[in-house]
# Entry
Amino acid sequence: MEAAKQKGTYKGRQKSVDDDEIRRLAGEGIPKAQIARDLGVSRMTIYRALADGNPKTDAC
# Structure
């Protein structure tokens, strides 16, 4: 698998839901647990999608 990654042929699994859809639903005020149930994914998937959309800032 490492050799495939170095060649660029290993891309991993395709996402089953769109992060933009998760952000839209969360922006409408729908609880994260409800979004996860409606989309058929785990709550951790919801948290990751929301975290990836927010730029991380360093307080240095």
